[in-house]
Amino acid sequence: MTEYDKKLIHPSAIVSPKAKLGLNVEIGPFTFVHDNVEIGDNSRIAGWCEIGVPTPLGNGEPLVIGANATIRSHSVIYESSTIGPRLVTGHHVCIREMTKAGIGLQLGSNGDIQGHCSIGDYLRTHRGVHIGQKSQIADYVWMFPDVLLTNDPTPPSEELIGPVVESFAVLCAKCTLLPGVRIGEGAVVGAHSLVGINVGPGMLATGSPAKVEYKASILRLRNDFSTKAYPWKKRFHRGYPEKIVAGWLSEF
After folding, report:
1. How confident is the prediction for the chain on average, in pLDDT?
2. CA–CA dist 75, 92 (Å, integer)
């Protein structure tokens, strides 16, 4: 660290001299940064966090957090994970070892990624989302409050089969995906649904147990019935890079 960088670290924070911090990294009060950590430029880590927690369940590789991260208070992130640029967390989140996540991950408060999983670019989750081990999540997926991705078909057991969620899928509040199910590209899962079957691309699944009966494109915006709600990438662009949005719109 340079002398300038040290001015951005709160006096009560504990930062290992072995940790690799980029330029302009801010670290708040009572945060602990362990040895096996690499943090990208212009990242902001609030107070009472623990970054790079050592674990025998990892592979010995460092925790790598890309540039421009915003990590809010009481977050805990383990070593042996790689998270792309522009990570944003809420408060009290946990990201376990062997998580591979792309650009722009947003994990809401009380969110939980149990590790040993793969996540694409721009996953957006609201509060209380639980992503179990072995989950595979593609790009531009939305998960709303209290979504649960399970992985043990006969709990408790040593067999873990994570769900697969393809690009542009939307998982509405409090839905549960059972082990090994596949949610197709652009599919929508309704609130409180219990999903034990595969959901095809662009389809709508609802109910407990969930059934697939319609294309998601039948749904209309509540305040503009003339506009189809799905595929959402045609109408919702806030927070996505202009180049990406231009590519989406060229499809229509």
Report:
1. 96
2. 5
Q: Which residues pair with 101 in a beta bridge?
A: 83, 119
The residue that leads in pLDDT, 108 or 213, is 108
What's the pTM value of the predicted model, to 2 decimals? Answer: 0.95
- Cα 224 to Cα 228: distance, rounded to the nearest angstrom: 9
Q: Are strands 210-215 and 203-207 parallel, antiparallel or unpaired?
A: antiparallel
CA distances (Å), origin 15, targets 18, 19, 83, 183? 8, 7, 20, 41
In Å, how far from its chain's centre is CA 79?
17
Please name each of the domains of the chain with its CATH number. 3-249 (2.160.10.10)
Instruction: Give dist(CA 45, CA 33) in Å, integer.
Output: 10
* Residue-wise DSSP of the chain: --HHHHTTB-TT-EE-TTSEE-TT-EE-TT-EE-SSEEE-TT-EE-SS-EEEE--TTS-SPPEEE-SS-EE-TT-EEESS-EE-SS-EE-SS-EE-SSEEE-TT-EE-TT-EE-SSEEE-TT-EE-TT-EE-TT-EE-SS-EE-TT-EE---SSSS-S-----EE-TT-EE-TT-EEPTT-EE-TT-EE-TT-EE-S-B-TTEEEEETTEEEEEEGGG-EETTEEEEE--SGGGT--TTS-HHHHHHHHTT-
* Rounded-to-10 torsion of CA 88, 89, 94, 97: 0
User: Residue 5: pLDDT band by 50, 70, 90 thresholds?
Assistant: low
